[in-house]
Amino acid sequence: MVVSGSQDEQLPRSGSEGRGANQQNRPNPSVLHHSGHPHLSSNGNISPVNTSLNYEPQETDFLLPNKLYSRSRLSDSMREKDVDDSGAPAETICSMLLQILVPFLLAGFGTVSAGMLLEVVQNWDVFQEITEIFILVPAVLGMKGNLEMTLASRLSTAVNAGKLDSTREKWMLIVGNLALKQLQATVLGLLASLMATVLGWMAEGKMPLHHLVLLCSTSVSTAFMASLLQGIIMVGVIIGSKRLGINPDNVATPMAASFGDLITLALLACFSQWFYSIIDLYSYVLYLVDLFFLCLIPLWVVIASKHPASHMLLRTGWEPIITAMVISSIGGLILDKTVSDPNLAGIIVYAPVITGIGGNLVSIQSSRISTNLHLYYLPGEVPEDRKSCYNPCRTFLGSGANHRSAQILLLLVMPGQLVFIHIIHLMKGGHTLPSPLFTVAFLSASLIQVFSLLCIADCMVHCLWRRGKDPDSYSIPYLTALGDLLGTALLSLAFLMLWCIGDSGSV
Question: 192 near 219, Cβ under 8 Å?
Fold first, then answer.
């Protein structure tokens, strides 16, 4: 892609409208912030840039190399050839579909396995005695959206921006983000257990102390270990995608969730059962576990502070993940009350599937839109067609790359969920097929959930960018948490309706 050296050239437009004549002479904020860096001209030469203007840096600046903001100074001829009407690099529907399909299926198999595992462990002593663990399930599983998918989105943007080309910078960015993630996992694990305790107390009217201690130890241990394992896997996926020439926006976030649910749920079940078995004889072990993970917090703070991007997120990145955890916990309360009803107990195997698939699909779209904004628009600026009142049809109707990806993601819902329902049927022994009414109800709930999430993602990402916030760090936690809440609520409603009409084939 050729980059024009003139700062007076017109910026890329969204659709047929330009971004305004008053923006044509606007200085490059990334270059202004890093005054020691040059500006690239179209012939590859370096031209000086006036750094006398003041600019308050946005939190996204640290993730992108300076030259990439210069890409917004594309000539009209090159824009017409190399980018589509949304400003995104040309990407065929076939390549997009293939890149999305494989990790989507892998993620689906992971959520199906998690659902089958949850159906088995719900009969364990600890799940029967301390039912508040069911409130923890969506909150702890949702941490992949709060942490792993957010990390994947940030690193995907960094890859597309060329930030991982330098070995030293690459490892500083990776280590800083992993340390930040471990810190966030520890804090979120503790808060999730406290939230489950409060919601359980509100629902039941009581909460024994040993239940609280077990919930805290289980949640913190699960969050920390799952975050560590998945973070290492995620870094490998990002680096592997870069070497294979695959767009990490299409594969990283669903791969982050492919076996994340299964790993997290297995750790949650094992830790909770082990703590439950020793709580009467060695209750001090649970207190020591909590103390150990809390004592590691200063270490993660020091390491995360070494890189500017993760250092800034230490101060600004808490709002979305804590809010998302609260939203997921409300979904967990719905799941807890639904599972406690024997007539609706069959929901347990399908809950991770509908929540996981919805979160996986919307995270792809969010990551793609975020990368597009990082590469082609200045912080605080959005395409012309996103400055007016939001129209849901605009998310799917259009010829841009992000319109095509939204169409593909929505079209994947029904065939994908049919495959996963059939896999669940086979794994349960294949004795009876799901009833037609159940299939229709489940697919309808999934379709409504994903359609709503894609519309919300389109609006949310652009609104966050307009406010000067990095969508890579803010949008995915909210979206996956809303996916948990919407998915659980819609699925519970579907099971309730099926039970009311006497559909026995729904379990």
Answer: yes
